[in-house]
C-alpha cells in the first residue's frame, strides 16, 4: 500500500533534467542530435554523449522537445 508524505526525504535521489542554463549539477553543454539545440547536462550524460561521438556513433542525446516529438511519432506508428 502506498502512503503519502508531506515532507521531503533528502535521502532520495534527485531526478536531474537537462536545462537551458548552467546549474550546479548541469555544467556541461551538449547539442541535441536532432535539432542541435544547446542544452546543459550533468557529468554522466555528458560522458555518455562524448563516448558515443568519440567512437563514431551518431549523437544519441535528444532535447526534451525532440524526445517528445519522437515519442509521438513512434506512438502514432
The helix/strand order is EEHH
Strand order of the largest sheet: 1-2
- Work out the number of β strands: 2
Secondary-structure-derived class: alpha+beta
Strand coverage percent = 5-15%
Query: What are the low-pLDDT stretches, counting only 5+ consecutive residues below 50?
Result: none
Description:
With 77 residues, the protein is α+β, with helices and mostly antiparallel strands. The protein has a domain at 28-76. Helix content is 32%, strand content 10%. It has 2 helices and 2 strands; from the N terminus they run E-E-H-H. The protein has a two-stranded antiparallel sheet with strand order 1-2. The protein is globular, with a radius of gyration of 16 Å. The chain starts with 27 loop residues before the first strand and ends with a helix.
In short, what is this structure?
With 77 residues, the protein is α+β, with helices and mostly antiparallel strands. It has 2 helices and 2 strands.
Chart the SSEs and their pairings.
Elements (H helix, E strand, L loop, with lengths): L27 E4 L6 E4 L1 H12 L9 H13 L1
Antiparallel strand pairs: 1-2
Amino acid at each position: 500500500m502506498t502512503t503519502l508524505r508531506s515532507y521531503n526525504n533528502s535521502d532520495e535521489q534527485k531526478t536531474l533534467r537537462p536545462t537551458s542554463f548552467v546549474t550546479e549539477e548541469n555544467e556541461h553543454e551538449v547539442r541535441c542530435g536532432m535539432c542541435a539545440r544547446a542544452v546543459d547536462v550533468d557529468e554522466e550524460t555528458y560522458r555518455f554523449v562524448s563516448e558515443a561521438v568519440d567512437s563514431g556513433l551518431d549523437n544519441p542525446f535528444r532535447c526534451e522537445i525532440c524526445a517528445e516529438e519522437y515519442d509521438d511519432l513512434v506512438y502514432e506508428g
